[in-house]
Amino acid sequence: MSTHHPTELEKLYDYLNDEEDARTCKAIGDDACRETPKNYFLILISNMLTSLGDTLSNPKTVLTWVMSYVNAPVMLISFIVPIRESGSMLPQLFIAHYIRKRPVRKYIWVLGSVLQFLAIAGIGFVALSFEGNIAGWLIILCLVAFSLSRGLCSIAFKDVLGKTIPKTKRGRLKGYTASVSGALVLAAGLFILYKSKDNVGIDFYSYLIFFAASLWLIAALIYANIQEYPGETEGGKNGLKEAWERLGLLKEDKHFRNFVITRSLLLCSALTAPYYVLLAQRYVGKEAYLLGLFIIANGIASIISAPVWGKMADKSSKKVMTYSAILTASLGLLVVGIIQFLPALNDKVWLYPVAFFVLGIAHQGVRLGRKTYIVDMAEGNHRTDYVAVSNTLIGFILLIAGGLSALASLISVEGVIAILSVLGILGAIKSTTLPEVE
């Protein structure tokens, strides 16, 4: 009787996941269990690359700088964050039926990643070739295409993850992914900080975007090698009809409804970020080095916090949502208090990157907590339905929340941060009412 000798890849997988004698494969089949180590690292590497691509084409930082360089109207610049975030979510309820028909769904992710490569590369080309209103509108169109393509990846990723990675290892995988991505982001931020000493122009930022685009193409090639076994295909009927039927989940499923409410309130961690940048620009200035400092702060936050949040999420993802929401709210109220009552600190360069760093830690917790929670909450096509319905609704809510940029001119940036902090407190309270799913 021959014994199986673990490969180096399997040894590394067992080490990272604290496996000792027998590998645990909760909620996946035996065939998928045998392929877990290989799939684990393919998913890690591909998502690490796309995470770096996201950072190097971030609408809150890099794309804002690029659009300002090409003299795009401020009105269009204000749309890039809600379009990028909500555009990937809104169509999901209506395309989920297509994905449900596919017993193997990794190629949906591959397609979405290739389309994102084309869209981001298009932004780089526009930045080099056009200016003013034309450049602004073309970048918006590319961003719409990017967001729609991102929607394909969002649904397919959670399904493939649920079919290939054991239930108690998913949060840790996302944590390691975010941590390695954070290290790469840190290197990118240091490079931008170094280059800011020169009088960099649109060429530099365009080539940065071209590099970001290439990461999605490489990730697609890697992801295509995942060993995914056929899964459930029930329910692949009329998309629009089924979309409305699946909206009934909100009425029928109290657990899911409460999760969607909680997730909506937890948007505070994402929506707050641009306002810290605005405060820095107001009190410190718009020098290019600030871009590098914010990227570095966010990268360090990912490196430090993601593995910790990931391990915590495998034990209790709802507690991760609670703690990260409390951190987001507390930080916002502290920063508002400093601005209002300690004006001597307002022009300190260190204040805003440090705040952005803490916010990055909190946002990692929100993301890892809610992603792990919804994947563990259901199996099979129920998972696809939950992801599609919740993402579509969050897309609508994001568009509404995008109006906060208009509120900033009516009240103040500090006022918007305070309002979002209150929502964070409500999100923390609501998350404590959710049942455990691990």
TrEMBL record:
MF terms in GO: transmembrane transporter activity
Stretches assigned to the Major facilitator superfamily (MFS) profile domain: 208-438
Cross-referenced InterPro entries: MFS, MFS_dom, MFS_trans_sf, Sugar_transport-like
Keywords: Membrane, Transmembrane, Transmembrane helix
Tagged with keyword Ribonucleoprotein: no
Signal peptide stretch: none
PROSITE patterns: MFS
Bilayer-spanning residue ranges: 62-83, 107-128, 134-153, 173-192, 204-224, 256-277, 289-309, 321-343, 349-366, 386-404, 410-429
Domain of life assignment: Bacteria
SUPFAM superfamilies associated with the record: MFS general substrate transporter (SSF103473)
Keyword presence, Nuclease: no
Pfam families assigned to the protein according to its UniProt record, in alphabetical order: MFS_1
Protein known as: MFS transporter
Originating organism: Leeuwenhoekiella aestuarii
